[in-house]
């Protein structure tokens, strides 16, 4: 009993913490629900009392019938007497009673059953409805409190807590708390109640037998508990995580994988990581097989022991009646099994408690900077003087790295102050301190002489407008995005702000004008358009302070000019701080402050700092790529606008963003949040998305190699399926022995039946293990095979296929993770369940209908209901709360958007707006949850009461057949036990069976992928190759539109050629087709019209692997893989093993070697996911080394230095210049100074080349290129 007490105390401890936010009303609901659970738990043991009395009645009636079969005996005064009036005595000197009205007795018992069933119906409804309703109210409160607390946290807290982790907590962790405080608690209380009352019934009925059964019942409880836990844990997906991360990394980097021919290498890497998932799945199947085998073995051994010892108490000592034996044995057995079945609830409580700890710790945490605080001063008048006084600062996530070191800066009101300096010198950090995203560790920041920590934070942020390098727009209309700047903005003010930001004209050109949806993250807008909307949003605040953080650095030439003009307008009369990598954008500032190592090292105007020849002078000199200093100073007066950026077209960046967003959306099932363009595309494809379920024969064909395992598993399943009917047969035989009057014959039969029970138990152990292991093995081998061929098929598709958001990395990774494992639902364990069920039902029906077809027909009427109740009961084990996840999609979208963009929201002081939006979105799922509480209650109540009604009708009709048709009473028990037990088992089994329909759909998805013929084949045998590859390239009348945007023609007749060893440079504005031409050359796409010729051969006729093996590429955003520096460089040539000497040589050529040798692990240094452990310049040099290792004849440089600071760019550009030697090279220009030495410069506009020649030729021609260089005007 100490164990039981400890068990209960542990459970109370596990569940107590989660109810911290319950109100008195909810506590009352939970108490009422608990009382209902307690009383409901007593119903099954109470039914056993009726069952015991009914058994005694049947046995007594059978004995009476046997006695009265002798014509010399009669029934007088309820006692069997001889005709002469002498009482008939049995061998043990006892008398036999008579006069039993079996039909009347069975009617009475039927009413008992109906009464208990009606009570159970009511109690179980309230039990579930009250607990689930109370939980829904608490979870609603917790969600609101948690999100509100997160939104008022300081930014430093977000640096230490990833957005992905927080989103997981909001969805999964709070759902775990829900599981731990909803229906699971009531189920737990009910099971503990059944355990207690079951043991009470046993002790009251016969303490000796109870003690014997108790001796072995912990073994049954343990087995039932372990098996339930083993079933309900989701370790397969956890084990798959490593392989899943490989798949995600590869699919997110398909252009790089394709460019370097890494498809085969990545397939093998993925397959190697699948081994762990396969091994865990097989191990899990074996463990479940052992547990199930152990459970059934112990149960049958327990049957044997209990019936053997119980029969001695019935026959020899008369301490028990036959009904008492049944009552005691099943009471204790029921108690033990319920105790075991309570253990999954403990698992839910433990998970809920762990989740609650992290959630409640956050709720209890006091933010260091509380953005909801009403405290702090509000100044009557704001001038806008900002001053940093000896500020020291390091980020909370990197406390060992000092960012600001005794910084002293003065920014005067109404002036524009520019901060310049190398990356990491602390420029952007100052802006974040001004916004109070962080507080200094030492020193202070003042506004008009007041420490900003003493000012009201919401008021302070309302004074500030900020425009960042990558502005965040929200998934709503343009007008609403501008309104985010300030509450209560009128439409007139929105329009005025748009005009000031130079955004009005392009907005009015859009079909929906200000009501145009910008898409997730502004994905439907170009970089320049997003930037201008962000400026309008900043201006509508009418801020006293304007912060410009590299606001034009990522824009192309055309966009930058417009945005810069808007910024120049915006800063008039405001205190403005501007940070820029491009010094051309800051030379007009009133004051320029030079930063280095977290300090200011110089201050002055543009001319003063040039004369001083310090940090600023060095940066300007570097950026002008070594031009003559005096000449540079003169041209500075005319404008540094010569040094311009040409960034990748907005289509490409939007596409990248869409793919990133789709990963998160599809994982959470949030397809509704796709913006209108995607919705349109989806609606266009609606017909082709309807997928017919795959035929089972084809699925089995993939499972063919495992047929020996499936055969063995089916054999085990057939044996297991026949166990329940055999049990019913033996159980009824045991009951039948109590009416045998010959004691020796009675003892012999009982011993024989007990031996059969033992034999079946031993056989069950092996057959259960055989079924579990064999089908796990066959299923896991199938899953691995399908995952591998599925991944292989994905890597064989053309790049255009990946542009479709439906085939985003997130969607494909999810498909590999879930679809392949779901296919097992149509094979493997599913086949085992089918064989088991068919054997079970077949044997049960044969036995039942053979011994009494009439009674079998009555019982059969209840079978569907009993089976359904099994499904409901098993469903309750897993917790209904899990089903509410999908209802929270809309709220999840708001929380995800808010947390992903928390800096923007904090800067706009819009935290409360998003909290209100989130709480509003919670209302609908909350209402549904309260409604579902009643639905769940009704379903559960039906599931619980149906067995009582079935027993009432079946035993009443059985009594009729015994009385009127002479059916032996043991046949009544045999028929009912066989059919009811089989139906219940079938219902329970089906709830754990993988969804058959889903499996066929999942298989169809995979087969659709496997059957798809890519438009550009990667086969080495298709297309031709030649030995003397020179590298001559010609674009002949190329026209092209991206498959995902068929309405926009990108290339409109591209004509240009380059000879071997020459360098061709493309220049032009965003979207003119520069990057597209490179992708046609790589055969990521084929032109719609025209040809790309390589050495005179049309690219469409060349073997793709052969062509790509001669091309090396360095992109604007190089993709590195999560492995070592050496392995990333080796990736340049996947056709062979690249030696360490070659790696070092390539690294030296890429100006990388010296940096690598300063690292602790040198070339074995891990670069992190997507090269996150390295700076952009370091990543770019690794990408160059990777291209050099390939020793390509053609080198493609796609804006390879565009995102680098001046210092990094110089080193990378030197490496690129060296790499170009002796190769045909195509450069997409970022800064015009980098391409002046090109053999051919091709100026592109709207998909065609409008002029070409050398730098000198084009300058002499004084057309588009000349205009671009001298004025920075857009190319038209």
Automatic annotation (TrEMBL):
It is a multi-pass membrane protein. InterPro entries: AAA+_ATPase (IPR003593), ABC1_TM_dom (IPR011527), ABC1_TM_sf (IPR036640), ABC_transporter-like_ATP-bd (IPR003439), ABC_transporter-like_CS (IPR017871), P-loop_NTPase (IPR027417), Type_1_exporter (IPR039421). Belongs to the ABC transporter superfamily. ABCB family. Multidrug resistance exporter (TC 3.A.1.201) subfamily. This is ATP-binding cassette, sub-family B (MDR/TAP), member 11a. GO terms for cellular component: mitochondrial inner membrane; plasma membrane. CDD domains: ABC_6TM_Pgp_ABCB1_D1_like, ABC_6TM_Pgp_ABCB1_D2_like, ABC_MTABC3_MDL1_MDL2. It is found in: Cell membrane. Residues 386-622, 1033-1271 form the ABC transporter domain. GO terms for molecular function: ABC-type oligopeptide transporter activity; ATP binding; ATP hydrolysis activity. The chain crosses the membrane at residues 110-136, 185-205, 211-232, 286-309, 707-730, 750-770, 847-868, 935-955, 967-986. Residues 33-351, 711-998 form the ABC transmembrane type-1 domain. Gene3D superfamilies: ABC transporter type 1, transmembrane domain, P-loop containing nucleotide triphosphate hydrolases. Its main location: membrane. GO terms for biological process: oligopeptide export from mitochondrion. Keywords: ATP-binding, Cell membrane, Glycoprotein, Membrane, Nucleotide-binding, Repeat, Translocase, Transmembrane, Transmembrane helix, Transport.
